[in-house]
Design goal:
Length: about 350
């Protein structure tokens, strides 16, 4: 797979241009479309949805449906449900974590998510692992921000092993071992974004873009027929634009060391942990993945971040239609197809 080298690191930023309704051809015109937008907070992030609809009524219904999908997936996958939800038992992941050693009945969505995570883990030799919960709790990026001693990590590393998870699709149940804690932070937003895009599509929305805190999905094209433009900016320099990805019916997902981190004695400690060491992964600074599914892009953005640019050649070809961009201390490496999607690149 061809790779090209460009300058430093990145995150995602959406730029919306003025859009006009497209003609249906001949003497007949498509219904006039109007731009509508809504923001809501869920899954620890602000989700923004911009869509085009013929009237406010359909737009509101579509927004409600999309927000409902985010809420539904969040409730199923929230491992902190006892703090966040009136009834924590609606969360499959909470119930799994609270009942180690037992086969816990879960929804088909949860089985699908866990099996998807296990497959990426298998393909990457454990670079992605949803059993990383005990290590995340030890670092406590949301609270005390603890830098663990090696002995603390060594005590928990055996529990961060998703090979110990039993996901029985036929029985609709999941079993983990005592001491294990599942964490769906590396894929839940991606799946929720896919679900929201699907429900918009089912309601007849043909032009929309969803941004769930860096998990971006471009539904269709703009009303004028052009692709959506997802701007990539430098994560360390506000307002500095690196390039623009043109996307249509594609997800653009970014993971980086700038998303959730703390600094101590001049060292940046970020939340993307290498399951093999229990420490923040150091092979990349930022990763952007393009795929037709936000779930796949979400899974792979974390996985490639852990593995680094070498995974562009040995891992990504196993996931059809995937393009990637990896930032590290040496610059930026991109797949050939990703290079084609970049409409412009700043020097």
């Amino acid at each position: 797979m061809k790779r090209n080298i460009f300058p430093p690191r990145l995150t995602l930023m959406i730029f919306f241009a003025l859009m006009l309704p497209i003609s249906a051809g001949g003497c007949r015109s498509a219904p006039s479309l109007t731009e509508f937008s809504r923001e809501f907070f869920t899954m620890d992030t602000i989700v923004s949805v911009t869509l085009y609809a013929p009237d406010q009524s359909l737009a509101d219904e579509a927004f409600d449906a999309a927000q409902g999908e985010f809420s539904r997936v969040h409730q199923l996958t929230d491992r902190f449900a006892a703090q966040n939800l009136p009834d924590p038992n609606v969360s499959d992941i909470y119930r799994i974590n609270q009942n180690p050693g037992q086969a816990v009945p879960v929804s088909p969505d949860t089985i699908f998510l866990i099996q998807s995570a296990l497959e990426v883990s298998r393909q990457s030799q454990g670079a992605f692992d949803i059993a990383i919960g005990p290590l995340m709790d030890l670092w406590d990026f949301k609270g005390a921000k603890h830098i663990p001693a090696q002995a603390e990590l060594d005590a928990l590393l055996p529990l961060a092993d998703d090979r110990l998870i039993q996901a029985d699709a036929e029985a609709g149940a999941v079993t983990i071992q005592p001491g294990m804690v599942l964490d769906m932070g590396g894929l839940a937003k991606g799946y929720a974004t896919d679900c929201a895009a699907d429900v918009l599509r089912d309601m007849g929305i043909r032009h929309a873009i969803i941004n769930a805190g860096g998990n971006v999905y471009a539904l269709g094209r703009k009303p004028d027929g052009s692709p959506w433009r997802v701007g990539i900016r430098h994560p360390r320099k506000d307002g500095a634009l690196l390039g623009v990805v043109e996307a249509a019916d594609q997800a653009v997902v970014s993971s980086g060391d700038y998303e959730r981190y703390f600094e101590a004695d001049g060292v940046r400690y970020h939340h993307i942990l290498d399951p093999k060491t229990g420490r923040p992964a150091s092979s990349a600074i930022s990763v952007t993945i393009v795929n037709s599914k936000s779930l796949t892009a979400d899974l792979l953005s974390t996985t490639v971040f852990v593995l680094g640019r070498e995974s562009l050649d040995d891992l990504l070809p196993r996931f059809a239609g995937t393009e990637a961009l990896v930032m590290d201390e040496d610059g930026m490496a991109v797949t050939g197809g990703m290079n084609d999607l970049l409409a412009s690149v700043s020097p």
